[in-house]
Amino acid sequence: MKFTGGNAISLSLSRALFCCLIGLMTAGCRAQTSSLEAAPVAASTAVSPAVSAQDRKIEVLIRSQFNVPINVSVTIGPTANSDIPGYRSLPVTFSRAGKASTVGFLLSDDGNTIARLEKFDIANNPANAIPTENRPIRGNPQAKVTIISFDDLECPYCASMHEELFPAAAEHYRGLVKFVYKDYPLTDIHPWAMHAAVDSNCLAQQNGDAYWSFVDYVHAHRDAITGAGHDPQASFKELDRIAREQGEIVKLDSSKLDACLAKQDTSAIRASMEQGDKLNITGTPALFIDGERIPGLVSQPVLWTAIDRALTEEGVTPPPEDQPNKPAQPATPTSSSPPGK
């Protein structure tokens, strides 16, 4: 539980507000409906003449403290009774383009202090229980550290992060970590991302190596798949061609693969997207390293620092920075198929 306050108006960083504004501070792909900066300035952002001087002071401070974009409307109050002696609850609502998010603060009875009370359920943190059953694994399946990436195959930032993870990080941490990708296609801005996710899952149903080869290829050839004409139907055909080609390389059941590609069942992808929504994901890439969230595209030093921290907490010594880890025993498979395959 966290409680902060002071003799003057003060604020602690609200988790809800942080989730609203984090997209403005990190590089990554974001759909227009989930980014506060995507819509034009709306007339409703104008401050009502009836707003009190105190409310205006609070709004100005919040805007300056958290760099709230000018196209986001901030509404203060009204206050209500709270469970904290000497304080009343103070809702602050952030809205834009018909969407709103309310963050709860506390206002002292004398009106001179704002505080924030927030509780976090350690035992039920969803970031520590992201389901990965039946997902292809790259790296050592028995590794203690798991790196989960919510990925959009059409996202350029995801492609850059993919290059950071593979082959550099995979080689540097060989045998010490495992990588799992989850689907989070931003269909509002990426017309073929959902189709690509379905095709990748069709391959994963039969063979993990085919899945990873497809992901590698698509991330490296996004522009070619999009094509000069930006025709989604042409992109769909190209994705299916690539999937069939990968299936031929590893000798998959072509009839089963063709049926899956033709069906284009999005249910598994949408389930993954719902899991991402519960984790407050608003853009891609979004990584979770043993539950620690790494939002957006980050540099290799930042990424490796987080991985080293997770390894250390698991009692594993990270490899030296200037050379990859060399396992004493034979290397484990670089990927795995779903159980029973």
What do these coordinates show?
- This protein has about 350 residues and is α+β, with helices and mostly antiparallel strands.
- The chain is built from ten helices and 14 strands.
- Strands 1, 3, 4, 5, 6 and 7 form a six-stranded antiparallel sheet that branches. Strands 13-12-9-10-8-14 form a six-stranded mixed sheet.
- β4 and β5 (about 85-95) form a beta hairpin.
- α4 runs antiparallel to α5, α4 (about 195-205) packs parallel to α7 and α5 crosses α7 (about 230-250).
- The radius of gyration is 23 Å and the shape is globular.
Write the layout of secondary structure elements.
Blueprint: E1 2-4, H1 15-21, E2 29-30, H2 53-66, E3 73-76, E4 80-81, E5 87-96, E6 99-108, E7 114-118, E8 137-139, E9 145-151, H3 156-172, E10 177-183, H4 193-204, H5 208-220, H6 222-226, H7 232-249, H8 254-263, H9 267-278, E11 283-284, E12 286-289, E13 292-295, H10 300-313, E14 335-336
Parallel strand pairs: 9-10
Antiparallel strand pairs: 1-7, 2-11, 3-5, 4-5, 5-6, 6-7, 8-10, 8-14, 9-12, 12-13
Helix pairs in contact: 4-5, 4-7, 5-7, 7-8
Give descriptors for this structure.
single chain; 341 residues; alpha+beta; Glutaredoxin; six-stranded antiparallel sheet; six-stranded mixed sheet; 10 helices; globular; disordered N terminus; disordered C terminus
